[in-house]
Amino acid sequence: MAELTARTQARVAVLKPRVFAWVQDYGVYAAVLVLLLFNVLFTPHFLDAANFRTQLVQVTPIVIVALGMALVIGTQGIDLSVGSVMALAAALVVMYLGYGWLPALIVAVLGGAVVGAAGGALVAYVGVQPIVATLALLVGVRGLANVLVPQLVEFRNPDLIALGSSSVAGIPVIVLIAAALTVIVLFVVRRTTFGRQVVAIGGNRTASELSGLPVKRVLLTVYVISGLLAALAGVLATARLQASDPTSLGLFIELSAITAVVVGGTPLTGGRIRVLSTVMGALLMQLLSATLIKHNLPQSWTQMVQAVIILAAVYATRERR
Amino acid sequence: MRRTDVEPMLEARGISKRFPGVLALDGVSLALRPGEVHALVGENGAGKSTLIKVFTGVYRPDGGELRYRGAPAAFATPMDAQRAGISTIYQEVNLVPMMSVARNLLLGREPRGRLGVIDTAAMYEEASRVLAGYGVAADVRRPLRTLGVGAQQMVALARAVSVEARVVVMDEPTSSLEPREVETLFGVIRRLRDAGIAVLYVSHRLDELYQVCDQVTVLRDGRLAHTGRLAELDRLRLISLMLGRDLSDVRTRGLTRFSRIRHRPTDGAAAAARVGAQGLGIHRGDAPEANTPTPSGGASSRGGTLGAVDGGGERDDAVSAVAPARVALGGEPGEGAAGVSDGTVVAPGGGAAAARPRGGVSTEAGVAVASPGGEAGGGAGAGEHGAGPLGGASTDASTTGAVEAGGGAAEHGAVEGRAPVVQARGLTRRHVLSAVDVDIRPGEVVGLGGLLGAGRTETAKAIVGALPLDGGQVLVAGAPLPKGSTAAAIRAGVSLLPEDRKAEGIIPALSVRENIALAALPSLGRAGVVSDTKIDRVVEIFMRRLRIKAASPHQPVSELSGGNQQKVLLARWLAVRPRALLLDEPTRGIDVGAKAEVQALIDELAEEGLGVLLISSDLEELVEGADRILVLREGAVVGELSGDEVTEERIMATIAEQSDG
Fold this sequence. Notes:
The structure holds 2 protein chains of 2 kinds. Helices cover about 80% and strands about 0% of the residues of chain A. By secondary structure, chain A is mostly helical. In chain A, the strands form 2 sheets. Chain A has a two-stranded antiparallel ribbon with strand order 1-4. In chain A, strands 2-3 form a two-stranded antiparallel ribbon. By secondary structure, chain B is of the alpha/beta class. Helices cover about 30% and strands about 20% of the residues of chain B. Chain B is globular, with a radius of gyration of 28 Å. The interface of A and B includes residues 194, 206, 209 and 213 of A.
C-alpha cells in the first residue's frame, strides 16, 4: 500500500513539470476553448455572427498593440506609451485627412514610429529603463495629441469610414488587418534574423553583445515597431469611431496589451515571444468580459476574474525556471 | 616582534561550507590576532570570499567552529557581526552616494540634539575631525559621490573603524586606488595594527602583501594550503602555493611538451592510427588576404574531401565546411607517436600528424616557406588545391575545407615568420590595463599567464572591443578595428569565448541550435530571412564534429552539461569562421573528458591556421597548450616566454618578479 502511494507520488512528481509545461504552452488555448464552450451552452444568441463580429472588432486594437508589446517584452522591456501613440495617431489622421485617407494614415503611422524611435533611443542608447522612458512618453505624447486636437472631431471622409466599417466576406476589414499583422509578426519572430536576435537579446543581453549582435539597433527597432503598430491601431480605432478622440482613445490600453502578452505565456523576463498565444490572451480577456456582461454580472466582477487569470498566467510562466 | 601565541581575536576552526554540488570550504582554519595584518590569498574558487562571508555573518558554516574573542560565536546576520566589532570593506564601496560625506560616516550614530533632531553642526565638525586623520580633506557637507574613489574608500574605512571595530576585513581595497591613495591606506592599516586591531587583507597584488602583511593564509580549492608568517615565504613559493604547483615537481618532471595527439586516447596501434586530423574548414578561404588553410593531411584520407558546402562565392555565403573525414594515420602505437623537437610537433615516420598550415598568405609567401609535404611527414605528395605553400594561396581561394595535403610539419619559424592576424597595441584602461601589446599569429596558440586580477580577461575583452579603453588599438590582418564594437571584431574574424559561460556565453532559454547559429545568423539566410536548411546543416556539422551531446538540436542549451555548453559556444564561433579565437578559461568547470576534447580541439584549430589566445588558470593546461606565453601582472605584460622557456616554473618566476626590480 505504502509502496503504491510512493509510486503514485513518483508519478505525480514526474507528471507535474509536464503538466505545467503544457499549461504554460497551451493553457490560453484551453481557456479560450472552455469559455467558448460555456457560452455556446449557456449564453443565448452567442453563436450569432453579429455577436462574433462585435467581439472581434472590439478586441482588434488590443491585439494589434499587444503584438508590438510582445516584441518589446521579449527584450525584457515594456512599452507604456502605446495608448498615447494611438491618441497621437488619431489626432494626426484627422489633421491630414484633407490630403486623402492614405497620406493621412501614413503620416499618423510615421508619427507613431517617431515616438517609438524616441523611446527606443532612450532605452538602447541613453540607457534609461524602459518603464521610465515609455512612462515619460505616455504622459508627454498624450499631451501633444491633445494640443493638436483639443476636442473630439468628427470626420466625413468616406474612405476612412469604410476602412473602419466595411467587411469582406462578412469579416470586418480591421479584423482582417489584425490577422494579417499577426501573421507578419509571427513570421518576423520565427523566420527572420531580426526576430531571432530579439529573442536572443532578451534571453541574455551580455552574451548577445559578445556574439556581435547589433543589440542597440535591434532594441531601437523593436520600439519603433511597437510605435508603428500602436499608431495603426489608433487609426483603425478612429476609423471605426468615425471621430478622432485624442483625449480618451487608447486610455489604459497598455495594460490590456501587457495582460494579453502575460496571459499568453510570454515571460516578462524576456527571451521568449509567443505571438499566437498573445492574440489568444487578448481574445480570452475579451471573451471573459463579454461572458460576464452577458450574464449580467457587474464590471467589477470581470476585473476580479481577470486579476485571477493574470496571476495564474504569471505563476505558470514562473514555474519552468 | 609580535608574538603569535597571543589569543586570537577571531578564529575559524575547521570551517566547512557546502553549496549545492560544491564543497566551498573544507575544514579551513584561520586565526586573526590583534595587532596583526593577515593576508588571505588564493585563486578563483579557492574559497576566499566564502570564508570572508562566514566571518562577517553572511553565511553560516556547515561544520567547524567560529570563535570570537575567545568564545564560540555565531553571527546570524552581517549586522550582528558588525555590532560585535567585525567591519568589512568591500571592493565596491558600499555607502550611500547621494548622502553627504558626514552622513555616510556617521550613519546611524549621528550626534543628536534635543527632541532627537540631528545636530548637523556637531555632525559636520565630528566628521571633518575624523576624516582629517585619514588624510581626507574634503567638504563633508557635499554628497559622497563628489569624492574620488580613493577618498570614498577612506570614508568607508573610517566608518568601519569608527564603529569600534576589533576586526577589519578588507576585500581588495586597492583595486581602484591611485598609488598615492594606496600609500595613505597602508598608513591607516599600520595605524589599525598598532591600535591592536586585527586586519584580514585580501589582495592579489603581491607587492602590497609584502609591504603591509604579517601573516598569510593560502587557500586552494576550498582547503587550507598554507598558513604562516609572510616574511618566511618567498614570492615564488607563495605563487606556487596559490597555483597549486609543487616547485620540485615541476623541476624534476619532464616537461609535458605540447602534443596535440597526446590528449587523445591511444589504445594500441589501431587507436593511434585513428587519431583524427580532420579538417575543420573554419577558414575564410575566400577573403583575399586569407591564409589558405592546408589542414593537416594524412596518408590515406578515408572520407575524402568535403570542401566548402556552398562553394565559394560570396564571403558570407560559404557555410563553414567541415570534412567529417577521419584521416587515418599510419602512426606508431601509443603516445610516442608524436615526436617533439624545437617546440614543434613533428609527425612520426608513418604519416603526417600535426602539420601547421604553411605559407598561404600571398604577401609573405616568400617568407613562410615550409616544405611541401614529405620532409618530416613522408605522407602523400602535396595536395592539389591550394596546398602548395607558395602559389596556390591567393589564387584558388574557394578551397576551404579539408584538402588532401601531404604531411610535413611546419617549422616553428614558419609560424613566427607569419604576419600576426591580431596585433593589439598599447591597450590601456585606468586601473585595469596599462599598455598591453599582444600579437597572435595564424596557427599559434598564445597563452596569457598571470594571477587573478592581472588583466588577462580584460585583455581578451579589450581585443574584441568589449571593454572600453582609454587608449590603444587593435589591428586585425593589418586593418585597425573600430573601437568598442564587438560586432566589428567578429566581422573582422576575432571572437571571444567568454570566461563566464552562463552570464556571458549561452542564452539559456534558447535551443542548442539557436545558440550555435546565433553569431552566424546574418550569413545563414537571405535578405534577413533565416534559412532553416542552412542552419540545420551548420548545426548538424558542428554537433557531430564537436561531439555535442544533446537529446536533439532543439533541446534548451541550459539542460546540457557544462562541457557540452562550452562546445556549443565553440561551435557558435567556428560557425562564423574566425581568424583568431580568444578563449578565456575554456575548460573551467567542465568534466575531465570534455576538457580533453576541448583541449584537443584547440590544438587542431591552431594546426589549421587559426590564431588562438588561451587564458587559463591551470598552469599545466597553459604550458601544454601554448606556443608562447605572455605573463601579465597588474594589467601590464611583464614577460614573454617562448620555446623552452614555456614552463610552469618560468611562469611563476615571472609573476613573482618584483615590480620595479
